[in-house]
Amino acid sequence: MFQARGYAVHSATTPLVPFSFTRRDTGPNDVRIEILYAGICHSDLHQARNDWSNSLYPMVPGHEIVGRVVEVGSDVQKFKVGDYAGVGCLVDSCRQCSACRENLEQYCEEGPTPTYNGKERGSEQLTFGGYSDQIVVEERFVVKVAANLDLKAVAPLLCAGITTYSPLRHWKVGPGQKVGVIGLGGLGHMGVKFAKALGAHVVMITTSPGKGQDAARLGADEVLISTDAAQLAAHAGSFDFLLDTIPVGHDLNPYMALLKRDRTMALVGVLTDTEPLAGVSVIIGRKSVAGSAIGGLAETQEMMDFCAEHGIVSDVEVVQIQGVNEAYERLLKNDVKYRFVIDMASLADA
Amino acid sequence: MFQARGYAVHSATTPLVPFSFTRRDTGPNDVRIEILYAGICHSDLHQARNDWSNSLYPMVPGHEIVGRVVEVGSDVQKFKVGDYAGVGCLVDSCRQCSACRENLEQYCEEGPTPTYNGKERGSEQLTFGGYSDQIVVEERFVVKVAANLDLKAVAPLLCAGITTYSPLRHWKVGPGQKVGVIGLGGLGHMGVKFAKALGAHVVMITTSPGKGQDAARLGADEVLISTDAAQLAAHAGSFDFLLDTIPVGHDLNPYMALLKRDRTMALVGVLTDTEPLAGVSVIIGRKSVAGSAIGGLAETQEMMDFCAEHGIVSDVEVVQIQGVNEAYERLLKNDVKYRFVIDMASLADA
Prior knowledge:
The structure is a homodimer.
Chain A: E1 2-8, E2 17-23, E3 30-40, H1 42-48, E4 65-72, E5 84-87, E6 90-92, H2 98-101, E7 113-114, E8 134-138, E9 143-144, H3 151-154, H4 160-170, E10 178-182, H5 186-197, E11 201-206, H6 212-218, E12 222-225, H7 229-234, E13 239-244, H8 253-256, E14 259-267, E15 273-278, H9 279-283, E16 288-291, H10 297-310, E17 316-320, H11 324-332, E18 339-343
Parallel strand pairs in A: 10-11, 10-13, 11-12, 13-14, 14-16, 17-18
Antiparallel strand pairs in A: 1-2, 3-4, 3-8, 3-18, 4-5, 5-9, 6-7
């Protein structure tokens, strides 16, 4: 065990404050990572404030982690000291179930071990996330990060990136397809970049007319303002795939009308209730409302390699750890383009 | 034109009454059918009472039609006088769109022509359905019915049958799979029969403990009482496919928890709003809520042939046309096992 430092929240109603805690020593299959950057995911805020009624305190949030390997266990094969490495939402899983055997650890039938707000497998020890100076993770749950990428802008790929990349791949988005990305935030801006890089004709679907220029810069070929009934009607029945990144409950039916027959809209942002779904929205045209959660480790590595090849990173605003509570308040107002990333070097001043 | 007789409803609040009207003469590609039996579909009742706000009066309901061919046009190839024939929910479509070209006329992008409560293509002439003595339909929209089947019990195959057969085939239900049929009514009892005949392990999922014995008789291997939390928990994550035949708005989430990862629940009964869908119900396990509408003509013929081969028909209660209003009232109370069929010979006494 060694002493680690970070920021933690101690209850649903208190701010993040400096926190000291212990982490396990580097085991034979582990890598110890000095954390350089940690992205702020909307789910950090949900869990810090116990919005999902499953919070464990003290909680050190952060599951978009990029850093430098500072120690490797004796059996580690993929990493050496000095490598750049990433850790996402998961740090362990059962490894036995059909999902784990298919490299879909995020759907582990016994429940994967979350990077924070969980417990180490077979233990009461809480897991602590990326708002901290170091983390120790088994190499199977660590991905390699290419040195040619802007590291601070890589961090959000570990959650926002893989969450949008995985469904685009699963539903085989590619050239010749018209793909809509609904909602322009941390997830949506990555969805636009990936869908474009995969060769699709990309339509950014947003309620905000002001986001059009940004959408074009991110790679969108068109912008569809979803509050405009005429625009919705003009695009009816024309989409091959929709990626719905809206993080709060909303009406799915107007979007379902945009899909071609036999096509799918995948939800990735909303864990809570949507508004009522009309049966006719799926029955007429044999359409599907599906969902997708992050990605497995193999696919996360594939995404990282894809990003290195295509020069894809997130659009980020860097903050210091001392400003994390203010960043949460701005996130609540969608006042970020498009992801906050904490420069963990600032922790030295905490 | 010739004079036809049937029963019609003239407004949302009046009963079905005897009605005389004209039908077109038999064109070169048409067959004229003497109607022997007409099933009563729940949607007949919805449309008679304008529940979907799209009713056209006078309305002669009925889209589960079985009869005998009494005249064929000069270019008709599939039928000869004396053949048994069936007509379902559609009597025309555009024939040009991608759906029509793929034999999925039910998803015709210009909208198929319904057997009743619609208008003939390019005309203001209302279409009139099966609660009548004869019907004239282009042969493309007529299926052949094998003489070895019990004709009165064949009628519901034209809607309840194809509505359940098509999704079971589309989602490739077969041996080695555990399939749930939700709701035991006109659709559900056909879903059980087809899923069993396709080789699946079939679980009847119902709120009514009393339906267990019937489910077994229909071919179900197990019965799951969906109001019993312990039974739901015992079956969690175990189904390869769910066919949801419930005809009214309901909560989808408890059923979604029954599915394995990457599997689908198909809605076929509810055209109106469901209760709110939780994002987590599809995101965790990458599941899908889909829908399916009846079937195309080629698949309807395939189903008829499948039924002839496997000896599958509906469980019906035969009524006289004079009792149709009483049958509607009983249908509202689910007081039928499992489909009313009108013996159209009774029309001679009307």
